[in-house]
Write a structure and sequence with these properties.
The protein is of the alpha+beta class. It is 18% helix and 24% strand. A 4-stranded antiparallel sheet has the order 7-8-10-9, with helices on one face. A 3-stranded antiparallel sheet has the order 1-5-3. The protein is extended. The relative contact order is 0.17.
Length: 240
């Protein structure tokens, strides 16, 4: 019986050909049906500030606008933290990073939606941002309670070791080359069903978050088995 050995053998990714050739079909490649509405997000211009007021009067009057959504319009849980809580869809009182979503606009075209969000008038009270890991550590400003994974007595072993190397390094974030642009496409169906196409690596997590945000009975939401190119196809049913 032959033994397969793939060590040091160059093997292409299963979907590599489609990714580099453009044949892979992603959420943003789907042909939209007639009367599709398009969304755009109003973003924070501050990195760390208290939101004093958001005036969306001119946004609502803008050409092609059908609806404007803020944190007040979320019927369920205003948080999309997948593991730890603390990642609101739209913040209520404080922004914590530049470009944080503040509200959303639905319009007849993408261009009109993007033009509309620029007409928002937001007033802030500036707070001093923490922009380095070192500063955050010194001020003990953590995203969540620290967790330690420890076995034995590493400090003692390091102290008694023959050689010691001490230093630090930093590295920027990096995305995998094959990840698609962030997009979602929702098709209303009969009996208050939604068919959701989502650019995600975690379809069940996406399903759960949508259900919690919209107060949908998760037990009645049905995930479709079609998962392709790191995207998910979900069927969601509103709670009656």
């Amino acid at each position: 019986m032959s033994k397969e050995n793939y060590i040091e053998e160059i093997r292409p990714h299963d979907s590599a050909y489609k990714h580099v050739s453009g044949y892979a079909e992603y959420t943003d490649d789907i042909n939209e049906p007639k009367n599709t509405i398009y969304g755009a997000i109003g973003l924070s211009k501050k990195a760390h500030a208290i939101i004093k007021n958001i005036d969306l009067t001119e946004v609502k009057k803008s050409e092609g606008v059908i609806s404007v959504v803020t944190q007040k319009d979320i019927p369920g849980r205003n948080d999309v933290g997948p593991v730890f809580e603390g990642d609101p869809i739209f913040p209520e009182k404080k922004v914590e990073f530049f470009g944080q979503p503040l509200f959303a606009v639905a319009a007849t075209t993408t261009e009109l939606a993007r033009k509309a969000v620029l007409k928002a008038k937001v007033t802030y009270k500036d707070l001093k941002p923490i922009i380095t890991i070192k500063e955050a550590l010194n001020k003990r400003q953590f995203l969540f309670k620290p967790r330690k994974v420890k076995k034995g007595n590493p400090s003692k072993k390091i102290k008694n070791s023959k050689n010691n190397l001490k230093g630090n390094f930093t590295t920027g974030s990096q995305e995998h080359f094959y990840l698609e642009g962030q997009a979602a496409f929702v098709v209303p169906k009969e009996d208050d069903n939604f068919l959701v196409y989502s650019s995600t690596q975690h379809p069940s997590e996406t399903q759960q978050l949508i259900a919690k945000i919209n107060l949908i009975n998760l037990a009645r939401s049905i995930p479709d088995k079609k998962i392709k190119n790191l995207e998910a196809l979900l069927k969601m049913k509103r709670k009656n």
